[in-house]
Amino acid sequence: QQQVKQSPQSLIVQKGGISIINCAYENTAFDYFPWYQQFPGKGPALLIAIRPDVSEKKEGRFTISFNKSAKQFSLHIMDSQPGDSATYFCAASSSGSARQLTFGSGTQLTVLP
Amino acid sequence: DTEVTQTPKHLVMGMTNKKSLKCEQHMGHRAMYWYKQKAKKPPELMFVYSYEKLSINESVPSRFSPECPNSSLLNLHLHALQPEDSALYLCASRLRVSSYNEQFFGPGTRLTVL
Fold first, then answer.
1. What does the alpha-carbon distance between residue A74 and residue A67 come to, in Å, rounded to a whole number?
2. Would you call A35 helix, strand, or coil by DSSP?
3. pLDDT tens digit string along B75-93?
4. How far is A97 from chain B (nearest CA, A)?
5. Which residues contact residue B4 at a Cβ distance below 8 angstroms, ignoring those fewer than 6 apart?
């Protein structure tokens, strides 16, 4: 019940295209859903995060869509750029677990020039 | 200053060596974390410190020994490691364990055990 399932494992898109990464969870106690971006040899960096009281959050080219009833959330990267090529992890946390992050398995995104 | 620093960047050690990893932040965060990350995998939580006290140990082998000397510094002492312990070790911090605030990660220490 603590798992967060992420798909796809890898994604290749053309420059200017839309990248979509999906995550699903079971634990209804989760109430904070961040997305992290990680470049090779670097630590993960917070990209964008959402709480379940809203269905969508947008920051620049990055949008999180959240479906509480389906227990799913997704990251949309509009106008994808080669510099977006990285590994993306979704995560979830709850107050009951000291806000420990439960990570998805990761998606390796490659944006072709 | 929104940065978590980690030293060294790379470390190679034999199975009989003793070494330490260091992590530092000056953001006033009172929650600090150690994670282990294998290639193409998500970070795995090892330890959580809250107000300089160890609050969570995710059943980590005793060859890994964390230490939090003060609110800005976190160490991970390594002894008698195994080759399978080779990984990227990430430090992270957050304002408080219970807060929604962003968890900041350091760049990691790439550890190789021979």
1. 9
2. strand
3. 999 999 999 999 999 999 9
4. 9
5. A43, B23, B24, B25, B91, B92, B93, B104, B105, B106
Measured between beta carbons, the chain A residues lying within 8 angstroms of B74 are: none
**Is A106 within 8 Å of B40 when comparing Cβ atoms?**
yes
Which residues sit opposite B73 in a β-bridge?
Answer: B24, B70
Query: Across-strand partners of A90?
Result: A35
Residues of chain A found within 8 Å of residue B90, distances taken between Cβ atoms: 43-44
pLDDT band at A100 (very low <50, low <70, confident <90, very high): confident
Distances in Å between the alpha carbon of B67 and those of A108, B33, B77? Answer: 34, 11, 8
Q: Could you give phi then psi for residue A95, rounded to 5 degrees?
A: -70, -25
Beta bridge partners of B44: B36
Question: Is A34 an interface residue toward B (CB < 8 Å)?
Answer: yes
**Distance (Å, rounded) from C-alpha A68 to C-alpha A59?**
20
